[in-house]
Amino acid sequence: MPEIAxxxxxxxxxxxxxxxxxxxxxxxxxYQEFVAVIGIDxxxxxxxxxxxxxxxxxxxxxxxxxxxxxxxxNLLQAGKLPFxxxxxx
Length: 89
What we know:
By secondary structure, this protein is of the alpha+beta class. The protein is built from 2 helices and 5 strands.
């Protein structure tokens, strides 16, 4: 699962599934023992959990980079590697 960003101890990854449609566009956010799946079309929690502070950071980052996230999603679904996305500063 390619890593596309890392900030404040949070790792953002997307799955590569070139031969099948993998649910709605989303990414995975990891923080310590927590894992959350975040939708891209609507920035929302699909599954899992993060502490509230980290969840807010991930949502803010995703809103700033929604277009890049969708582009990376489309690249992955086409069997290509995604681009890194600038972390939150």
